[in-house]
Design goal:
Elements: H1 2-24, H2 29-45, H3 50-72, H4 78-91, H5 95-119, H6 122-126, H7 134-137, H8 146-156, H9 161-171
Helix pairs in contact: 1-2, 1-8, 1-9, 2-4, 3-4, 5-8
Keywords: Cell membrane, Membrane, Transmembrane, Transmembrane helix
Main location: membrane
Subcellular location: Cell membrane
């Protein structure tokens, strides 16, 4: 059962955040809270050392502090900042955290360039009322960066310690 939670909760939250951001340009606080609360409940049950557990929470706090600064200066949305911090809790101070941040930056940059190009194309006018494309077509709104965060999280997640633990348990 614990393995199932590890394989379902994080990916579900990443997909939900991405789709939510596309549809409404918001990422509900419930997504970030679910990520943090589920990590806090699951990680000790895997036998994770308390010092490692604390470092995972510290990684989330550090990312939250950095993204809060970006939010305060208008560089990112509040939901994006909270989602990045909650994702960092699952990654901890491991190389996968840096990899996640690099993937999110790269994917986010590509998403931004593609969106800006799209907004200047004739397709933006044709899809302005499509529920999945309307925010990509509207130059008055920002970029739904939750898409980049979701894809980056899904790409890196298989490399995390919790997934490694779950796979080892299933193989035994």
């Amino acid at each position: 059962m614990l393995e199932a939670l590890i394989f379902v909760v994080f990916p579900f939250c990443m997909v939900f955040a991405a789709v939510s951001d596309v549809l409404s340009m918001t990422i509900a606080n419930k997504v970030s809270l679910l990520l943090v609360a589920s990590f806090m409940a699951i990680a000790p049950l895997t036998g994770m050392d308390w010092s490692v557990y604390g470092m995972h929470l510290a990684a989330g706090a550090l990312v939250l502090a950095a993204t809060f600064v970006l939010f305060a200066i208008g560089g990112m949305g509040g939901g994006d900042a909270k989602l990045m911090a909650a994702t960092a809790v699952w990654m901890g101070f491991e190389p996968v955290l840096l990899e996640y941040l690099l993937y999110a930056s790269f994917i986010g940059g590509m998403l931004t360039l593609a969106t800006l190009f799209y907004r200047k194309s004739i397709f933006a006018d044709l899809t302005r009322h499509n529920m999945f494309l309307r925010h990509f077509a509207d130059s008055k709104v920002g970029i739904p960066y939750g898409v980049a965060l979701g894809f980056a999280g899904l790409a890196i997640y298989p490399k995390t310690a919790l997934v490694g633990w779950a796979l080892a348990r299933l193989a035994a």
